Amino acid sequence: MKKSIEKTKNKLRWSLLYTFSCVRPTKSDGTAPPSLTGPGFSRIVCCNQPWLHRKNPNKYPYNSITTTKYNFVTFLPKALFEQFRRVANIYFLLAAFLSLTPITPFAPISMIAPLAFVVGLSMMKEGLEDWHRFLQDMKVNNRKVGIHKEEGQFYDTSWQKIRVGDVVKVEKDRFFPADLLLLSSSYVDGICYVETMNLDGETNLKVKRSLEVTTSLDGDENFKDFIASIQCEDPNSSLYTFVGNFEYNDKIYALDPNQILLRDSKLRNTTFVYGVVIFTGHDNKVMQNSTASPSKRSCVEKKMDCVIYILFSLLILIALISSIGFTERAKFGMKNWWYLRPEHATELYDPNEPYLSGFFHLITALILYGYLIPISLYVSIEIVKVLQAMFINQDLQMYDEEICKPAKARTSNLNEELGQVDTILSDKTGTLTCNQMDFLKCSIAGVSYGIRASLVEIAAAKQMASDFSDAPPDAPQTNNMIHEYLINDESNSEPEFQSDTLQKQIIKGFSFEDRRLMGGNWLKESNTDVILLFFRILAVCHTAIPELNNETGSFTYEAESPDEGSFLVAAREFGFLFCKRTQSSVFVREKYDSSGNVVEREYKILNLLEFNSKRKRMSVIVKNDEGQILLMCKGADSIIFDRLSKNGLKYKESTTNHLNGYGEAGLRTLVLAYRELEESEYNAWNVEFTQAKTTVGPDRECLLEHSADCIEKELHLVGATAVEDKLQKGVPQCIDALAQAGLKIWVLTGDKMETAINIGFSCSLLRQDMKQICISAGCDDSVVDDSKRTVREDIVSQISNASDSINLEKDPHAAFALIIDGKTLSYALEDNIKLPFLNLAVNCASVICCRVSPKQKALVTRLVKEGTSKTTLAIGDGANDVGMIQEADIGIGISGVEGMQAVMASDFSIAQFRFLEQLLVVHGHWCYKRIAQMICYFFYKNIAFGLTLFYFEAYTAFSGQSIYEVWYMILFNVILTSLPVISLGVFEQDVSSEVCLQFPALYQQGPKNLYFDWRRIFAWLANGVYASLIIFFITISIFYNQAFRTSGETADLTAVGTTMFTGIVWSVNIQIILTMSHFTWIQHAFIWGSIATWYLFLFLYGASSPIVSGNAYLILEEALGPAPIFWVVTFLIAAACNLPYLILMSYERLVNPMDHHVIQEIKHYKKDETDQCMWSRERSKARQKTKIGFTVRVDAKIRHLKERFHKRYSTPGQVAASSSPHSSS
Description:
With 1225 residues, the protein is of the alpha+beta class. 46% of the residues lie in helices and 16% in strands.
């Protein structure tokens, strides 16, 4: 049965039905194909002879593609370049070289080993991440497709082995492996259906057609002796143009985009196609639209480099001070220091050459004070980011059970950037939507049907019930009135229908529920003839193909758009089953009641005027069994209403009201109309139409449009449909949360404007009372007289007027939406217009860019990124989103069931858009605060430690002597303070993930950069300077003049240095305790373990041989341990260093608390459990002021309903009457 259906379907000559899409003119004007000579048209393709393309001049690349940043040759130089872009690494590289000379104060290994470890670990991480990209590239490159080898035989071969000239056979639901010229298909007239969702975001199937001369090549054996050649344009990025000539059998035929099948588009509704490869690998148009994988760095890391520049300047300053001091002492004082034996001095301290010695001392000081520049900061950040990425990968809240895919951090360099996003630029199709429409409501003959509420209506009702829950004592009556008003006003149904659940099972594409139309009950309605016509239009006016499921006995439909599919499912459920299509007819099984009697009717298709973005309507002219000729039409209300006859306006007012209500409910609408034609009128029109259809030349499209306009008029209104565009699960809630988090959301789609606007309404980026600003170029393609200058001036004027409107708006609830198409956008992105355009867009609540090319998506992303200087995030799922993803500061790929191009080019991948909330609001918020606090703490502890070296050198006549043992200095960053700061970067949480989601406004701490702004950075630097002063002078002042041991001995250099170092270890570890908000056993183990490790090291180091420990022999058990002054100084240092921070933090929490401080206290005292009102109030106060999202839309809906409610119940008597139990319903 399946094979017979396929055979019947493939015999359909769709080219005879379609009017605008795929018609081959039958007349010829004798014009020859254009001559393709000169630059830009040098490509020669030898069809079915790929071996001719293995050598010059026609040697073209293989079909393999790569999205990696490195390869085996470039990895070492490029990775080293990436590492030494960091200023600190350059400094330590110089220091490592200098450590090999006699002027170094440390052993060479102490400088070379840390640098090699840090750089090597970072390069390994980069290499591993790029290896994963390589594996995903190979997964795509190893896909299989049938390639003609010899003697009419096709063999499955990997994509990467395809060459230009190969003939390939692509089967249904498979992606095209390269850019192909369509030769033939399973349809006899060589057409095929292509889904270009990955390229332009459109879900409507495109019709492609082959040249008529190649339609006979419809079997494998026909390619045994096939030889032809193609001369065409060189590789370029234009997806919608193609110019070429096809030479076959000594004749030349012109080629156009209708014959080209682009890589990453998919074959639909067609069993197979044959094509010849034109562009391969990075020459294909999709890859031409992509850019090289960029090297991205976060804003925090860039700012960290600035801080390191500041510290480096401080390092040079104190090194100069030290060098000048040493020079002065060497020149004037060293001659008197007999114990240094100045008569045998070297150039390092020669009193006779003080300036040379001072220069050498400058280099020594630069190395000695190098601890001000934290080399371990980079490796610690790398470790922390890898661990953060692991937590992102393992987050079950971002795991999609349906397709078994988790979130994936493809690079860990941008974790903290997730917490600083200001603008999200999103694709539409496959990202926001799942391409499924549900038939929910309809209006027929001025009566609204369908009692099931949309998502917007449900949310509005719940919120209104919540609003009235705290009302005066008569709240129950008021609530009942509101509920009754909602039911009666929105659906015009009776309350008794509301509780009746007729739909026992879920039917894909059909969520309609209303007993008045189901089960044949529509026959009891007053306008049965109009309802019958409504159902027949649903079942007949389309281009779908029915397919019978032999297992279930039910029909499914291969439709060009999800809307058509939902209409046919609705017609089937209403009892009008579209069951068969032939070349000239469609057959509908009509069931009028529940008795099961079925009548199969044939509708002969006379003409088909298909839908396109310019017409915004579709019509079919049919002849029924009774001989009537009917024009059935469906389209946008603005188009259909203008074409109604005076006698066809009967239901216009009520239908318009219903359409407005459906729009408020977030539904997509179409209007249905019809016209009965006299046979003579039709015949006269058909002659004119046929003549226009077969015309050759530039006027053909205009003639067809005019002919269609002549017949699509004097219509009679039948009704309207309302379908709910099924967004991906959780999209409205996610957008609402992101809006409350203060994020701006732009939609960039290749889809047509009407579809994009409908999706905007569905996901609450648009709402009914939002003022739409449509920027248009103001001319059609057919208008050739308007110069570009005139168009440009018109666009500038529109932008200026729109900006003035926004500035003059006084209504606080007013919101503006900017909508612009790709043609206009090409002007708006020009240098002298793009800044005014950006300013207008930034002032709008939402921005929707339609019909944009992949390159335009990337250009818009670049404009927002560079024009606002704020962090941008791009998210998409298709190959057309690659440029946008790579251009944005952060690229997110949707790892759905389709192609993987977007994922391979992305920085992070998630399975569904809704996981973006968890990724940004939770992980982004955490990662930003963790990395920011970690870096600030790193600078603090290194300044506190490094400046003590400077103080001591100044105290000892700038001698270059270190107060600490070499092993102390090596262990300070590697062991004693590394694990606590890593635990801060990995486990710190100011609030839990649940609270982050409940208070999305907390996210704004990142975009506002509250934790890594210059005020906070300098505060931490000042804290480090303060701590260094306290540590040094408390230790020196106490140890300087008093006995250290009971025998009266004073402390030596090792004892003073060890005591000072102990104070540092305690101070910086207590500081990190005060910094943390969230503790687990891991933090406790790392912090207290680090302190314990210091004492353990002192014990073991002192217990080792004096050859190893030197002056620190038995330093703890014999010298410091028994001395009370050692413990007292340690306590004083730790307390004095951290007391100011504790006081400041307490003052901030009491006087000027941040949002998370308030939440922490509420959670600590469990007020969220005992006082729900306060918890809700705090959540409401913490919301960002936004004008998009589900919450705002519901608020607007509530305001609208309350106004109408108060108008209806404006007098006390009416309210009392309505509230009375004896009042009639």
